[in-house]
Every structure is written in structure tokens, then in C-alpha cells.
Design brief:
477 residues, mainly alpha, 0% strand
């Protein structure tokens, strides 16, 4: 009886070991032929044929052979072995996965998605085809990709679907949605690449405080990670916590592994120093930023503008103006507003000067406006108004009436309009005030009074006009 029992147990054990032995044999075959295909020996075709003949009914071996060909970018043979695998088993999901990967490599997203759907149909519990479907489909429809991942959630509640959805939105540059999805995931379970995307998504969504908090979490795991230190640095700068920003900047530049630096890093360094009013160091960093490579003139121009602004903060108008001219040249086709800002720099510079060069700066500002009118005819009214202001500055006592013809032109342009904007009325009030004062100095009280009344028609509560008329009336008595 015992002998029969042991014989039965042995038979059962042998039966149970057969699949395992077969699997081991298949894996050994897969490992061997994969090495052969990747090494491309002279007799590759003969070796592949020999293996195929022995395994033509083993779909797993055939798919593995197809994958080896695919890794060599041999899509013809990869396709052939995917077809062989489906002949061996027409419902074999990995064969459809292989077809999908071949199509993805050939940039045929529609065909790839179709095959991944087939793989899902035959193996709905496997997350891989869902993820690959989402990867190719997000390029045309992020919402469709997310919908497929939601299907995965139903089949596999244990899979971290929120993180996968976060990646889809991030790759599609839909950063608020990416941040929202990543926020639903278990932060401790996120891969480092996903955690970095989470920090970046919050940063691009301008949620700087939240981005900083997640970056700090990342630094508890990888304190020498360049991405986390960089984002902690950027976010602290944008939050105006400049001292913390400089601490993280030091960590990025001096205590991070494999860190590579761009103009953006140096310009942010400049921003942090600028925020602390350490202008010499800020200028140094902006200059270092300009030594880096740029992928567009527009980005280079942006840093040049930051440098010019920093010179202004440091009251160094000579360098500010020189640098701003470089900014305009780098832009290539500056807007009227860009050019007008140069005139404002000359005006600001003049306000810091008390000697004879003061009016020289005003004249340079006026010349900028004159040139603007030639280049931007639509800005003619603005130019006339600003020339009036500049000439008024050159004649602060209004003894020469330098601004008079310009303010008169402003009035002649705006008054006939049936409908006037708030800006129109503001310009008229300024013009009337100047012209009224000019005529008062000429002892032409009637004309002065008419201009004050024009101001009150626009702004009945204007204190300056009411007081001026009151003073004139009182003086007359």
C-alpha cells in the first residue's frame, strides 16, 4: 500500500513539473536565440530557421524572436515572427503587443493603438498594453488616453493609475491636470521620474508653494538630485524667499550629482541676487547666463532685458541703455512698446542728472519717439503726446512753451471724436492743464478759464481746475 502511495505521489510530482520544465526549456531557447539575433552572425538565417522549425507552435518563443529583431530595428523580420506567433495562437496577447510596438516604432500611432486594444481584449488584466496605448494615443487625444487608463483602474485597482494619468497629462503639456492627477497618487509610491514630473507640473502651473513642498519631499529621498534642487531654487525665487533660493542654488551648483547648467539657471541666480538688491552679483549671473547656449534669439533677448533692468535698479543708466539697445537688436523686430521703453530709460536717466546733460537725455528720448513715428505710423498719436511730455520736461517753467504745439495737436486729434476712451480723456485733461497754465503765464485769463472749464466738463470733481478757477475769481475781486 505504501509503495502504491509513493508511486502515486511521484507520478503527480512528475506531472506538475512538466510545465515548469517546458517553461525552462522555452526560456533557455529564447535566451539563446535572442543573443544570436542581436549579435548578427554570418549564419544568422540558418540558426533562426532551425529554431523556428522546432518552435513553430510556441507563441512565446516566436514573439521573443520577433522582439529580438525589433531591438535591431529589423521591422520586417519582427513583423514576420509576430505573424508566426498568431498562427500558433490567434489569441496570444503578446503577439498583438509586438505588432503595436512595431507600428509605434514606425510612427503609425493609429495602428499601434489598434493592436494594443487587441492585446487588452485578450489579456485585460495586463497593465502594459493599457500603458502603451495611452503613450501613443495621448499625442492625438490625451482624454482618450486617460479614458483607457481609467479602464485599467477597473480591471486592476492595485495599479497606480493616477500616476500614469499624471504622466499622460505631463507629456501632453497639460500641467494643471498633471499636477491634479499626481496629487491623487501615493507620493511615497511614485517613481523618482514621476515625482520630478509632479514638481515640474506644479511649477509650470505656477503653483510655486506646492511645487516647493514636493521638491523638498524629493530632496528627503535624493538630497543630491539636480532636478529637485533646481526646482526648490526656482520656486523659492518666485516666492521671493531669496535667502532660501540662494541656499538651494548653492546645492544645485555645488552639491548635486551630474548637474548640467543652462542660461535659465544663471538667470534665476541673477533674479535671486536681484531680489536681495545685491546688484553686482546679479549682474555677474546675468552675464554668465549670456555666455550659455540659447535655442532662440528671443530667449537671449529676454536675459539681456533682465540685465538691463538690473542696471536700472543699480542706477547705472549708461550700461542700462547700452544693454537695452543690445536687447532691441537681438529681438530683430521689436514692437513699438519695446522701442518706447528705450525713450523711458533716457527720461529716467535725465531725472538723475542736474547738469546740462539733463536736456541731452530728454532730446535723445524725443529722438526715439521721432524714429518711432517713422517706423510705427499707428503710434503717431502716442508719439505726439510723449513728445509733449518730454518738451514740457525740458521747459519746466513753461517759459518757452516747447510742449505747446504738441499738446495742441493732441487736442486737435482727440476732441473731434464722438466717443472717447478713458485714455483719451486723460490725455485731454493733461493737455488742457498745460495749455491753460501756458496762457495764464501769458496773462490770457479768458483762454486759461476756457481750458479749466474743459477739464471740468470731463471731470467735474477735478480739484486742480476748481481751485485754479477759484483762485482766479478771488484774485479778480
Amino acid at each position: 500500500m505504501k509503495r502504491l502511495k509513493y508511486l502515486l505521489i511521484g507520478t503527480l510530482m512528475l506531472a506538475l513539473s512538466v510545465p515548469t520544465m517546458a517553461q525552462d526549456e522555452n526560456q533557455a531557447t529564447i535566451d539563446a536565440i535572442t543573443k544570436v539575433i542581436k549579435s548578427k552572425p554570418a549564419n544568422l538565417e540558418d540558426q533562426v530557421k532551425a529554431v523556428y522549425k522546432k518552435n513553430k507552435k510556441k507563441a512565446d518563443v516566436l514573439v521573443a524572436m520577433g522582439r529580438a529583431f525589433l531591438e535591431n530595428k529589423d521591422t520586417v523580420n519582427a513583423t514576420q515572427y509576430a505573424e508566426y506567433a498568431l498562427k500558433a495562437d490567434k489569441e496570444y496577447a503578446p503577439a498583438f503587443m509586438l505588432f503595436g510596438d512595431i507600428a509605434a516604432l514606425c510612427n503609425d500611432g493609429g495602428l499601434a493603438a489598434s493592436n494594443y486594444q487587441q492585446a487588452i481584449f485578450f489579456d485585460p488584466k495586463n497593465p502594459e498594453p493599457y500603458i502603451k496605448y495611452a503613450s501613443v494615443y495621448r499625442k492625438t487625444s490625451p482624454s482618450g488616453a486617460v479614458s483607457m487608463l481609467e479602464n485599467l483602474r477597473k480591471e486592476r485597482p492595485d495599479v497606480a493609475v493616477d500616476a500614469l494619468i499624471g504622466h499622460v497629462y505631463y507629456a501632453s503639456q497639460e500641467f494643471p491636470q498633471a499636477a491634479e492627477s499626481y496629487a491623487k497618487a501615493d507620493r511615497n509610491a511614485l517613481e523618482m521620474s514621476q515625482l520630478r514630473e509632479y514638481v515640474m507640473a506644479l511649477y509650470f502651473a505656477q503653483k510655486y508653494a506646492e511645487s516647493l513642498e514636493v521638491a523638498k519631499f524629493g530632496l528627503t529621498k535624493l538630497p543630491r538630485d539636480a532636478a529637485f534642487n533646481r526646482l526648490a531654487f526656482f520656486n523659492s525665487t518666485d516666492l521671493k524667499d531669496y535667502n532660501s533660493a540662494l541656499t538651494y542654488a548653492d546645492a544645485l551648483f555645488n552639491k548635486s550629482d551630474s548637474a548640467k547648467f543652462s542660461y535659465y539657471d544663471y538667470s534665476y541666480y541673477g533674479n535671486a541676487y536681484n531680489g536681495l538688491k545685491d546688484y553686482p552679483k546679479a549682474i555677474e549671473m546675468y552675464k554668465k547666463a549670456l555666455e550659455q547656449e540659447f535655442d532662440s534669439d528671443a530667449k537671449r533677448a529676454g536675459v539681456i532685458k533682465q540685465l538691463s533692468d538690473c542696471y536700472v535698479e543699480n542706477q547705472d543708466f549708461t550700461n542700462a541703455i547700452t544693454t537695452y539697445n543690445d536687447y532691441l537688436k537681438t529681438l530683430g523686430t521689436p514692437s513699438a512698446n519695446d522701442v518706447a521703453a528705450l525713450a523711458q530709460l533716457y527720461i529716467q536717466f535725465a531725472d538723475t542728472i542736474t547738469d546740462s546733460t539733463r536736456n541731452e537725455m530728454f532730446k535723445k528720448a524725443e529722438q526715439v519717439y521721432i524714429d518711432m513715428e517713422q517706423k510705427y505710423p499707428d503710434a503717431a498719436e502716442y508719439v505726439t503726446f510723449m513728445r509733449a511730455r518730454v518738451n514740457s520736461m525740458m521747459d519746466p517753467e513753461t517759459t518757452q512753451g516747447l510742449a505747446k504745439p504738441f499738446y495742441e495737436k493732441v487736442v486737435a486729434t482727440i476732441e473731434p471724436r464722438e466717443e472717447k476712451t478713458a485714455a483719451d480723456n486723460a490725455r485731454l485733461v493733461e493737455s488742457y492743464r498745460y495749455l491753460g497754465y501756458y496762457y495764464l503765464l501769458q496773462n490770457d485769463k479768458d483762454t486759461f478759464t476756457s481750458y479749466m472749464n474743459k477739464i471740468l466738463e470731463i471731470d467735474p470733481e477735478n480739484e486742480m481746475a476748481k481751485n485754479a478757477l477759484g483762485a482766479l475769481s478771488g484774485g479778480a475781486k
